[in-house]
Amino acid sequence: MATTEATDRVRLVFSLFDADGNGYIEPADFELMGDRVAAAVPAADEAAKDRLLGAFRRYWDTLVTELDANGDGRISPEEFTAIVLNPQRFDATVDEFADALATLGDPDGDGHVTRPDFVALMTAIGFERPNIEALFDAFGPDGGDRVAVSAWADGIRDYYRPEKSGIPGDHLTTGTSR
Ligand SMILES: [Ca+2]
Ligand SMILES: [Ca+2]
After folding, report:
1. Structural domain span for residue 34
2. EF-hand domain: which residues (predicted)?
């Protein structure tokens, strides 16, 4: 069983990953999203951007392989919600995506993500500003207003865990109309 919070988190991800807003997740959405996110941190190096674009491609491949129940080559909201039923099928994909995204937020490679880079990346994905700020605060930024890359990556992994509630990632669904 998935928690209500987990279901809300998954619904939000669907609405954001449907980047062109046509009601289905398709390859074109991942291209839009990938380009937007890769451009969010101009100081990031090409290898980090390529890694993220690769993670987005794998994400799509996994979705269409695991969730396209009716075989029409696109993922409907109903198909997507099944992601919470078999989380182990998505572990490797989410792992890769979490590490690639969090690493992109650390262009100088010191193991930390600053608030401006965090906000830029999460805004590019489509989350709302107050939620992004609340999430960053929930990660417990240090005196330099930074969070560890690993803390953010772990937060992304938790976000996809159907049994979890009361996690930092729940700040992303608070007060959203999606
Ligand atoms: Ca779409
Ligand atoms: Ca489908």
Report:
1. 4-165
2. 5-40, 55-90, 93-128
CATH of the domain at 138: 1.10.238.10
Contacts of 74 (CB under 8 A, 6+ apart): 24, 25, 26, 68
**119 near 152, Cβ under 8 Å?**
no
Q: State pTM to two decimals.
A: 0.93
Asked whether residue 25 is assigned to any structural domain, the reply reads: yes
User: Residue 8 belongs to what H/E stretch?
Assistant: helix 4-17
Ligand 2 centroid – CA 25 distance (Å): 9
Quick: pLDDT tens for 88-97. Answer: 999 999 999 9
List, in order, residues 6 or more apart from 127 with CB less than 8 Å away.
16, 135, 172
Nearest ligand, measured from the Cα of 23: 1
Ligand nearest to the CA of 75: 2
The gap between the terminal CA atoms of the chain, to the nearest Å, is 22
Q: And the tokens for 56?
A: 């987005």
Ramachandran angles phi, psi of 114, nearest 5° = -80, 160
